[in-house]
Every structure is written in structure tokens, then in C-alpha cells.
Amino acid sequence: MDLASRIARQFNDSAETKRSAGELMATVIADAVGLMTNSLMNNGKILACGNGGSAADAQHFAAELVNRFEMERPPLAAIALTTDSSTLTSIANDYRFEEVFSKQVRALAHAGDVLLAISTSGNSPNVIEAIHAAHEREAHVVALTGRGGGAIGEMLRDGDVHLCVPADRTARIQEVHLLTLHCLCDGIDCLLLGVEE
For the chain, how far is it from start to end, CA to CA, in angstroms? Predict the structure, then answer.
């Protein structure tokens, strides 16, 4: 096996997936930016959840909003529902793992807030339950998926935004998810700070 060629192919595949996703997703990412910015400007907050690599993405996104992305600005209200080990383990132990995010959404979400629901397959049971809880609380949902959107793509409502990466391979989906999260952060900053370029 020529390992260097295999690595180069990974880079090329990633770049091509990102190019295709950019063409298909730019408008809906802009919609998600508008939804999130509107919530933040009206004293709302963004809750983020996902499993595994998507849990890391949820934490990354919340950190960029609470601290800063690339521009100086006041902190923004964002919470990753993936970080409190006592809450996560108590819910999973006393109830079921499928409720680890939904119980937090029911406790923390208010009408007009936004749930960022991340699932590469679109079929993560605990993320699906979190979306149900967000709808109960009259919060909006921005779903970040791949593989056609799965069950999550079927359950979104008017006013929600579906960011579905046009890919089936988990690694490629996750790579586009990270770029999408950076686009969301940049877009929110541009709208809040009045950046024209």
C-alpha cells in the first residue's frame, strides 16, 4: 500500500465533499445564522447536543459563542448539553440514555431558543428525543446531519433549519460539520457586529 497516496486521496475527497456541500448548503446555513442570531438578539440561547464526535462539535460551538470566534464581541448565550457528567450519568442511570439531552432541554429551553441537534446519521435516538423536547418548549431546531437526514430530517417543523451534508461517509460528514459550525459562528458575528464584507 502507498500510504502517502492514500493520505492525499483523503485530502482530495474531503475538499471535493466540502465544495459540493458549499454549493448545496450555503443558503440554508445563512438561514440557520439568521435564526440563531435572532434568538440571541432577543435574549435567547443556543443549546447544542450530539454523541461522540458530534458531542465534541457541540462543545466546540458553544465555546466559540461563549468566548469568541475570530472577532472581539460580548459573550453569547450557548450551552453544550454534553459536558455535565453528573447530569448525563444520573439521567442515563435513573431513566434511559435516550433522555440525557431531552431532560436538559425541558429544564433549560424557553420559547424562541434554538437547539443545535448534531447527528451524522440523522438517527441518534437521544438527539431525536431532544428535538421532541425542543418542540414541546417552542424552541427552534437547527439540525446538522448527513446521509440524507435520517429520521431527524423527517421530524423537523416549519421554522426549523436542516443542514444536511451531501455525503454518506462519517469522516467526510464530520469534516463538513466542523466547517459548517465555523460558518455559523462567523455569520452570527457578522450580523451582530454589522460586518459588511
Answer: 46
